[in-house]
Design brief:
By secondary structure, the chain is an alpha/beta fold. Bound molecules: adenosine monophosphate (AMP) and zinc ion. The site of adenosine monophosphate (AMP) has 14 residues, from helix 1 and strand 9.
Length: 498
């Protein structure tokens, strides 16, 4: 498998540290607010990556932290007159619910920064002892000039880092004035009265953000682990500073591969509160099937910026609908397989199945090229729809190949966390409103599931035709048509579909 490594600036063959196992760490959210669809894009990308590793037989240890100790949390708690714990508790629960609603798998381990403080004090002390950090009035800073390889990940030199930090540290607390150089960053921060704090050799304080992730990844994965990931906005300063801290403190490699997903934009603009185009994940999921949001994210490569718009969401819904339609056609065909002369060749199907699966794997093995893999599935289902003219039949024997085609669609979308069985006949899909009202008009009782109800409508019409009650038979067909559904008499009987 080829993986694009941000640090190497090229694709590299995946060689896990332990055969058959992948150890990965993906930076989690700072829990002071609900997550927006930009955050969701990053979490969905890494969920896709993790699921694909598992599909390829790797045992994945996926660690994702919760940043529950941060200036933003303290500010929010102060603004609302609540304790930081109340704020983080609320948004941790909300985050986990949102992730479940989006179909994202739980991490193997979900550590919280506030529960890992002793390790953070240790690394800070180690860096002071080794001459890479210094204390000023209870704050401890990393001395960037002491790290000769600083900038390996982002390609920035110390001067760039200084201008980057100038804006980042301008938090009104004058912290930067206490530093020896502007590029230096806080490993440990002195707490003000009333702020969350822990005892340390430098007085009461709390860890810096980079310190948190470095310690949690080492503790739960060991060094060096395979993959460290996050959104591309974390390359600098967060991940650059994590590398500096880890390598200077522990004198060994930190993460073997660095993966970053592209940013999400809305209607080609950066998402920002001032532009009023800030969309929270839960708002989107209130109106959209989570599978459609996932389909949208799959249509752009995970490293490319993703443009979110209503139109693209509608297109993604249609693309998913086409695949679901193909599944329904396959199910219908399998159910109506005949012993008579078949007109569909099972061997042709087996060929198509193999071609689709091979192409899917080769696209995904090439740095998780999901858009190409989805494109492959779409052409597979188009081919199937071409073969499955409703007037054609399949033999009982060849219907096994049709089963396999259906299984492949379900399997490959399953890799993406999209359950295609959700609306298939195997499930008890409820009867939609328009079919309910047809039942009322023609005077029959619904039969519980959609499938059974459609069968009942078909048999009532067949009965009417048998009794030469043409007006009733026609009325049923007209009612179906005016509801936007199609009733078709085929070689294998009558079919109703949308
Ligand atoms: P934060 O809570 O700000 O640390 O963000 C959590 C994750 O969401 C990080 O991996 C960020 O890189 C990612 N993220 C933030 N904004 C966006 C965005 N607009 N598009 C994609 N990912 C984002
Ligand atoms: Zn992190």
């Amino acid at each position: 498998m080829q993986i694009y490594d941000t640090k190497a600036r090229k694709k590299r063959e995946l060689i896990p540290r332990e055969k058959g196992k992948v150890a990965m760490y993906v930076c989690g959210p700072t829990v002071y607010n609900k997550i927006h669809i930009g955050n969701a894009r990053t979490f969905l990308s890494f969920d896709m990556i993790r699921r694909y590793f598992e599909y390829r037989g790797y045992e994945v240890t996926f660690v994702q932290n919760l940043t529950d100790c941060d200036d933003k949390i303290i500010n929010k708690a102060n603004e609302e007159g609540r304790s930081p714990e109340e704020v983080t508790e609320e948004f941790i629960n909300k985050f986990i619910n949102d992730m479940h609603d989006a179909g994202v798998l739980d991490p193997t381990i979900r550590p919280r920064a506030t529960q890992e403080i002793p390790e953070m004090i240790d690394i800070t002390q180690t860096l002071i002892d080794k001459g890479h950090a210094y204390e000023v009035e209870g704050d401890v800073y990393f001395d960037v000039s002491s790290d000769k390889t600083y900038g390996v990940l982002s390609g920035r030199d110390v001067e760039d880092a200084e201008s980057g930090h100038r804006t980042l540290v301008a938090d009104g607390q004058g912290l930067e004035k206490r530093k020896r150089a502007e590029a230096d960053f806080a490993l440990w921060k002195a707490s003000k009265p009333g702020e969350p704090s822990w005892d340390s050799p430098w007085g009461k304080g709390r860890p810096g953000w980079h310190t948190e992730c470095v310690c949690m990844s080492k503790k739960y994965l060991g060094l060096p682990f395979d993959i460290h990931g996050g959104g591309s906005d974390l390359i600098f300063p967060h991940h650059e500073n994590e590398i500096a801290q880890a390598e200077c403190a522990w004198g060994q490699g930190f993460a073997n591969y660095w993966m970053h997903s592209g940013m999400l934009k809305i209607n080609d603009e950066k998402m920002s509160k001032s532009l009023g185009n800030f969309l929270m994940l839960d708002e989107v999921l209130n109106q959209t099937d989570a599978r459609v949001l996932r389909m949208l994210t799959l249509q752009t490569h995970y490293r490319t910026p993703l443009n979110f718009s209503e139109e693209r969401l509608t297109e993604a819904g249609k693309a998913l609908g086409n695949i679901e339609n193909c599944i329904r056609n396959l199910e219908w065909l399998i159910k109506n397989a005949t012993d008579g002369e078949p007109t569909i060749d099972g061997d042709e199907l087996v060929e198509l199945i193999k071609k689709c699966k091979d192409a899917f794997i080769s696209h995904m093995d090439d740095d998780f090229n999901a858009p190409a893999a989805v494109g492959e599935i779409a052409s597979f289902s188009n081919e199937l729809n071409k073969i499955f003219d409703p007037n054609k039949t399949i033999s009982k024997d060849d219907s096994k190949a049709a089963e396999k085609a259906k299984d492949l669609l379900v399997e490959l979308f399953g890799v993406f966390g999209i359950d295609l069985n959700q609306n298939s006949e195997n499930n008890d899909e409820s009867v939609p409103a328009e079919i309910s009202s047809i039942c009322k008009t023609i005077g029959i009782e619904e039969a519980g599931t959609l499938d059974k109800t459609l069968e009942k409508i078909i048999s009532v019409r067949a009965e009417a035709r048998k009794n030469k009650d043409w007006s009733k038979a026609d009325k049923i067909r007209d009612e179906i048509a005016s509801a936007g559904w199609t009733m078709e008499d085929t070689a294998q009987g009558t079919k109703i579909y949308k």
